[in-house]
Amino acid sequence: MFTAIHHVAIIASNYDVSRYFYTELLEFPVINEVYREERQSYKCDLKVGESQIELFSFPDPPKRPNSPEAAGLRHLCFGVKNIDETVKKLENRGIDCEDIRVDPYTGKRFTFFKDPDGLPLEVYEG
Hints:
By secondary structure, the chain is of the alpha/beta class. The protein has helices at 15-25, 83-92, and strands at 7-12, 30-36, 41-48, 51-57, 76-80, 101-102, 109-114, 120-125.
């Protein structure tokens, strides 16, 4: 029935800051970007492997509850080939990463960092 995750949508509190973060620091290529006048909103489609991130701006979006175990989407995870190289690259760009941990069930290494709005992002080696 389902074959893949097509996209994940993110609403940024500051579109320019988040666009820079995702396109320049994380190096996701822009597929398409439009300004929707009727909604006073940008929509930027970013390529992530075979999937996409839809980055939106809206006037005065509500704040997200700041609880790590709140109901809803917990985090967004990106697969990487070499976690050490990825973490080094992120940290060289001023992005703080947590210590690398090992998943006790898979033996794979992973860590977390945050986007400009505090959205938890994970990188997972393998």
